[in-house]
Each structure stands twice: as structure tokens, then as C-alpha cells.
Amino acid sequence: MNMIYSKRLAPEHPLPTAYKDSWNALQGVQARSEPWINDYADFNRFFLVGDSAGANISHHLAFRTKQSDHTVKIKGIAMMHPYFWGT
Predict the structure, then answer these.
(1) What is the rounded CA–CA span in Å between residue 34 and residue 49?
(2) Tens of pLDDT along 35-50?
(3) Distance between terminal CA atoms of the chain?
(4) What confidence score (pLDDT) does residue 55 get?
(5) What are the residue ranges spanned by the domains of the chain?
(6) pLDDT score of 87
(7) Which residues pair with 80 in a beta bridge?
(8) Which of 22, 39, 71, 75 lies 20 to 30 A from 65 at CA?
(9) Tens-of-pLDDT digits for all 87 residues of the chain?
(10) Closest CA to 70 of 31, 37, 22, 21
(11) Beta carbons of 34 and 1 less than 8 angstroms apart
């Protein structure tokens, strides 16, 4: 199962808006509000994927789920051109 979402972008929506949007999307998956999700998704094998700033957000989400009582288990992260500690 793939989940693709859109986050609000700067400068119209300054940080941490994109991080909050991403966390809310993951919370939506955890809520399992759509019955078909329970039939097709394996919540013990969840991967996060991001490119550039999205890679940074994926990294952030992985750590945040570890520090919470999140039921979605992050199995791995694929980060393309992650942007850390910019100049």
C-alpha cells in the first residue's frame, strides 16, 4: 500500500507546518478510519520515503513515532538527497 499526501509549503506556511501536516497524515493512517485499510495494510512493516526536505521530514517522523505510543511500526526509511543542517 502506498500513501501519498501533500504538505503545505513555505513561505506561505512557515515551519513547522510541513512537519505537523506530515504527522497528521501518519495519525490518519494509525486511526484506520477507512475499513479497507485494515484488510490491506501491514502496520508492522511501514516504510517512510522522502526526497530533499521530504527526507528530513521522514527522518523526523521515524524518531517521533519511536517516542510516542504510535501503533504504526516504522520498519525503514528511504531518504533521497536529505537536507540536514542547511547553509
Answers:
(1) 22
(2) 888 888 888 888 999 9
(3) 36
(4) 92
(5) 43-87
(6) 55
(7) 51
(8) 39
(9) 677 888 888 899 998 999 999 999 988 888 887 888 888 888 888 899 999 889 999 999 999 998 888 788 889 999 999 878 765
(10) 31
(11) no
Three-class SS of residue 44? coil
> Strand 74-80 to strand 46-51: parallel, antiparallel, or no bridges (unpaired)?
parallel
* Separation between Cα atoms, residue 16 and residue 13, nearest integer Å: 8
**Contacts of 16 by beta carbon, 8 Å cutoff, 6+ apart:** none
Q: Which of 68, 53, 69 is nearest to 21 (CA)?
A: 53
26/14 Cα distance (integer angstroms): 20
Question: What residue type is 60 in one-letter code?
Answer: H
d(Cα 33, Cα 30) in Å, to the nearest integer? 8
Q: Residue 70 is which amino acid? A: H
Q: Tell the burial category of 8 from Cβ atoms under 10 Å away from its Cβ (0-12, 13-18, 19+).
A: exposed
